[in-house]
Amino acid sequence: MPGQFSETLAAASAVSYRMPWGTIKGLCWGNPKDIKYVCTHGWLDNAHSFLPLAQQYLRNNAMRTQGGLLALDWAGHGLSDHRPAGTHYHFIDYAYDLWSLLEQQKWQDIVLVGHSMGGFVSNVTASLCGERLRHLVLIEAFGLLVSDGEDAHQQLQSGFSSRQKLTHSKWRDYSELSSAVDARLKSADFSKPLVEILVQRGCYRNAQGRWQWRADPRVKATSPYRLPASTVEQILTQVKTPITLIRGDKGYDKVAPAIARWGHCIDDLSVQGIAGGHHVHMEKPQQLAQAIATIDATE
Fold it and tell me: Is the pLDDT of residue 297 over 80?
């Protein structure tokens, strides 16, 4: 583990939550029985996506006094179980998992922090259990990816074909962990040290002594369908939780159109720009922690 986060990782408690299909795992800073911040990562990332924020949490008395910070691994990611054979990774099932976990643990007054896919999942979940949430922090995500203007038949065909292709798919493995880091770095818009902390949790040494990705290859399947924009609007109008949307100035290009399309659906929406890319929460965790501490101070 890169030295700058070694103390942060040492301060974490490993946690797990039993679900009908398997176990969701994660890391908690503070009291695991008094969770106030629930953080969910993006596609093909893992709980280490929030190590930089956790480092700031440990330094920020205003956040620590509110309660524990939990970073989860989605199903099929990080150390969480893969979904059983014969099942798939529907977007809506991630939302169901998060909703189920909030209901199971009976958490209240939660600040839900979601990056990218985690943000998309979080704003759907917030429409169903807003009474459990104090605030929603979306990072580089708003609304949903929709089907409008797409060929539904082609979407189904692509989705079904990719599912079939990935049923018995395996990741390539590497003789050195550094090779896995280099592979992930090719698709990253952030620094190598930050890539390294994702890869540390995202890989394991297999029986042959080689480094293998932990993520279920099936998470790469193309979605066979997406909701229409009108349905997304209906869902978002049910979100009564205040939202702070964090955008990187060099981040995801679909965030601005989503705000223009659905921003009016949210009664209390604050948009904050931070210098950085799609993983701005890892690049600039101080600004993210400050935005969250401001929420705590005003609510």
Answer: no
